[in-house]
Write a structure and sequence with these properties.
265 residues, alpha/beta, TIM Barrel, eight-stranded parallel beta sheet, 9 helices
């Protein structure tokens, strides 16, 4: 099975000692392509720089995560626009709202979110979205700006059924991570993931975060790796009551269509 990890933080310093080996292990586990998440201007620069080293295998996003929204100033928009013009950049984001951590004020988050949605519409690029504990504000702002944005994905979806249905009604794609493997927090996802049409679901690890809790044997390190995408696929396929091969083909086709990825050669 061929898989695409649509969201991982491969430039994270936890991968510095063995990044090449991490990628090799993932490829051996069936992951053929990786979309590297940009969450600040400097982090997006790093993601694009890494993507350029293997352009058939890697692509990158460029954006400002709500945690970094306080850094969004007059220079940020032009800096992001320049990064988004890179041939290795395939989406705006990670952007959105996070009222759980509140590392930036709600006003700062909403400003950064709106500006990035406007940028995506101007550049006709898809958006890679983050939302936690902010659904009503998040979807309200999204509705204001969705016209002109070609595609949008709710990255690392962890919400309830009503949130899922609201996103699907707006035409969003849904990204599912190893959160679904967490018996404490993710069990509800197993009950609702079947509501996602096969042509709107994608899978991701969010590595090095969100190590699946049900891995056997349990890894000694808590660092997540993209090789665990195959495990996430299996859990999602069982919950959706579809064959893993069918889900793999669907999520891979969706990711290529969403991000405009060429098949690796």
């Amino acid at each position: 099975m061929e898989l695409i990890d649509i969201g991982l933080n491969l430039t994270h310093d936890s991968f510095d000692p063995d990044r090449e080996a991490v990628v090799d292990r993932a490829v051996a586990a069936g992951v053929s392509q990786f979309v590297l998440t940009g969450s600040s201007v400097s982090g997006s620069e790093d993601a694009i720089r890494l993507a350029a080293t293997q352009p058939r295998r890697f692509a990158a996003t460029a954006g400002v995560h709500p945690h970094h929204a306080s850094e969004f100033d007059a220079a940020t928009g032009p800096a992001l626009r320049a990064l988004l013009e890179s041939p290795h950049c395939v989406a705006v984001g990670e952007c959105g709202l996070d009222f759980f951590r509140n590392f930036s004020t709600h006003e700062q988050q909403e400003h950064a979110y709106r500006e990035q949605l406007r940028l995506a519409a101007r550049m006709k690029m898809p958006v890679f979205l983050h939302q936690r504990d902010a659904h009503s504000h998040f979807i309200g702002i999204l509705r204001e700006h969705l016209d002109g944005i070609p595609r949008a994905v709710a990255h690392c979806f962890t919400g309830a059924a009503d949130e899922l249905l609201a996103y699907l009604e707006l035409g969003l794609y849904i990204g599912i991570t190893g959160w679904i493997c967490d018996e404490r927090r993710g069990h509800h996802l197993k009950e609702i993931v079947g509501e996602i049409p096969l042509d709107r679901i994608m899978i991701e690890t969010d590595a090095p975060y969100l190590l699946p809790r049900d891995l056997v044997p349990k890894p000694k390190s808590r660092r997540n790796e993209p090789r665990h995408l195959a495990h996430i696929l299996a859990v999602v396929a069982e919950a959706m009551q579809v064959e893993p091969e069918e889900l793999a083909a669907a999520t891979t086709a969706n990711a290529r269509r969403f991000f405009g990825l060429a098949t690796p050669g």
